[in-house]
Amino acid sequence: MKYIKIRLTLCALFAFSSLFLATAQTSADNEAVSSNNDGNSLVQVAYRKVPQSDLLGGVSVVDMENLMKKNYNTYSLDNMQGYVGGWTGNSLWGMGSDYLVLIDGVPRDANNVDPTEIDQITFLKGASAIVLYGSRAAKGVVLITTKRGKAGPNKVDVRVNTGMFVSKRYPTYLGSAEYMSLYNEARTNDGLTPLYSANDIYNYSTGQNPYRYPNLDFYSSDFLKKAYNKTEAVAEISGGNNRARYYTNIGYYTQDDLFKIGQGKNNNINRLNVRGNIDFAINDLIKTYVNANATFYNTRSAKGDYWGAASTFRPNRLSPLVPLSFIDKNDVNNLALINSSLNIVDGKYFLGGTQADPTNVFADMYAAGYSQWTSRQFQFDTGLDFDLKGVLKGLSFKGMFAVDYATSYTLSYDNSYAVFAPTWAAYNGTDVINTITKYNDDKKSGNQNASNSADRQTIAFSAQFDYKTKINDVHNISATLLAAGFQQTQSGTYHKPSNANIGLQVSYDYQKKYFADLGIAGVHSAKLGSGNRDALSPSMTLGWNVKKENFLANSPVVNDLTLSASASILNSDLDIANYYLYQGNVTQADGAYWGWYDGASEKSTNVRRVDSPNLTFVKRKEFSVNMKAALLNKLITVDASYFTNSMKGLIVQPSTQYPSYFIIGYPQTSFAPYANFNNDGRNGFDVKLNINKKIGKLDCSLGLIATYYMAKATKRDENYLNAYQNRAGKPLDAIWGLKALGFYTKDEVTAIDGTAAHPRPTFGNVQAGDIKYQDMNQDGVIDEKDQVNLGRGGYSGAPLVTGVNLTMKYGNFTLFALGTGGFGAKAIKGGTYYWVYGEGKYSDVVRGRWTESTAATATYPRLTTGSGTNNFQNSDFWLYSTDRFDLAKVQLTYDVPKALLQKFFIHEISAYISGSNLLTIAKERKILETNVTSAPQTRFYNLGVKVAF
TonB-dependent receptor plug domain: from which residue to which, for each copy (predicted)? Predict the structure, then answer.
């Protein structure tokens, strides 16, 4: 019933829109077709559009509508670092992932708008470009502007794609026999007797009966497909005239999964989106628009964490499916027990298990049921544009209001099931099942359970007066005065995230030669105490079009050269984690070290924090310069920026500024206030260079992009005994760990005496073959005080991010290629794949383990059934480079000549074939391409066609 209502509602909205548009068009049939709605030469920036030639820096734009003609993709921000400078893949200028995403001016999810819906994406990197958006925009803004209808004949574009995902690489784990042998070795290293006999290991190695002697491979073709499909269809309908224009996008895609067993065979994702944008001119002075979007997203999943289990479940543990044929036909009791199961697979197998594993992920996929995650998003925004030239020539007013709803929940069938543990015997040389032990019972309630419900409401508004004038044909003045804000209500969140600000933008240029731009925002935050909740954020930009000076006006080399510089101070509350840090907090808790009377553990009153009334906004102080140039008859174009900024007054509880007794660990108590104490600093540059050349009939365009940034802690609340451990002066993304000196020998272990020459490790007892670390402070002890900066982690993107895009067009063929790179970052080989100890599963890395005979060539510590805490510390032993260059996309497009379509109702046909994530060039390619506890990385091969009617 719910879905019927949704369909009826959508149909009604569509019918109403169609009727509205038809009426509007009828009243304006004789009006001329306007070309002013092109938008290609205008760039959407904060609350206004400006000609691209007037951008003064800190802003980059991608024309998505044209890009999609040669590079079809399905995620709005897919590989954007390959087109614009300053975007690292997950941050702007290395500022972190808290950048603000606005879709048509409203805070929304970037993954909820399909690239086919997008007109352009603007990256506002510089502080001067984001000042009007207020506090929550201080880490940068990504503006996504959706398409709008254009005056002209009705147009229908239909696009259909289908493609296959192919796994790049699977983790490599040892088989049962090798695992058992090495596990025995680990036990021997620990002074224990071997667990597995030579006969056991032999039986597991032969593979003659994998049900009695299992060799479980989670990545086998028995369980996984070689490829899986995604199919998509999108229809775009647009048209209108000067009075009314409309754009509609209806898209649907379905995607299956890699699994070929149990409920996993039915895993799928499907998404339906409907967008409608309407622009209507009520008269010559008043214009309005209405945008609406609905997205229906469903994911069906089998029960169980398959990929997580694949990283921990040992290969010899059990056989997930056991054939019934191993049970003697005359064994009435065992057959009766098995036949009582509700989960006989394919009529031939029963679910295997053991007393230690009464459930397992394979049985989960067959018998535990399935779940369906459902997400619904409904978005609506509307606006008015009044021309107030009757009051003052050049004056106008704009207003926008938006309401969004997002809900999600999970529906599931949760079944319990029985597994059966066989006991094997050999009769006349043949393996048979002797006895069967049942664990658990089969239960299917038939009830559908609801869980994980979440909802979010977003309300946004803006109102602004705009003024534009020109004096004596040389002085261009524009100004914007605005008030804007948004608030989100989220389930499970007490205080609603909010943003409220007023702003003033004044721009001036003299003959498009000299530019000045002033922006001021008044921001407000409820995260601060009374008296500190309001602040002003100023920004100033100066620009100079050098090309218009006499000494360059006739230059055959320089076609354009514009320089600009900006200085800004932005006040932000993004880095204030809690709305109530300025308030004291007193709680009660059970179980202090003492009670109010002997022998009792009573509740204690604990001061969690004291009042911090002096907290203020965190300030982003920034200076940046920008250069835009076109050279050699626009053969080469360059857009480059340099920036330096600081985040001052980051809020911490500065424990080093107060006596130690102000802060107590248990019961948790603190009398130290929070303060604006820490500072961060960033500097770097980005550059985008394009080369456009026509060679005979071949049009070539090459884009080269680079972004480099350095982010450091410039001030920290810290009191380390050793200067090398100070975080101040070190990268924000520093990886801290120990310096490894190879493996201990027996003599070195014997010599440990706690002196500087032979320091004593504190991470557990060590033996020969364990990792030896450097005693950095020469105190005779190996501990946390010996950790040093090992390198940058690149958490906000690699220090150097590069991109290259190439377009070659010959006749009706277009070849596009995109490459992206990241350089200068490191990572630690950790997790269960690399840090193998105890009862863990063994990966192929342990083949290089230390033994007495391989001490000189070993690449891995000795094996152990203990915790291995000494070996598995962050250290440069586990460090590796994440430097990489990826061939992210190649697409070949063929446009059918329009001359061939003149007699048909079809106006355009384009067909294309593409591949994504095709190649990684890296020293550590195997590590970078391997996912351990999640689904594998994939290459995607796509075939598509676009038809215009």
Answer: 77-141
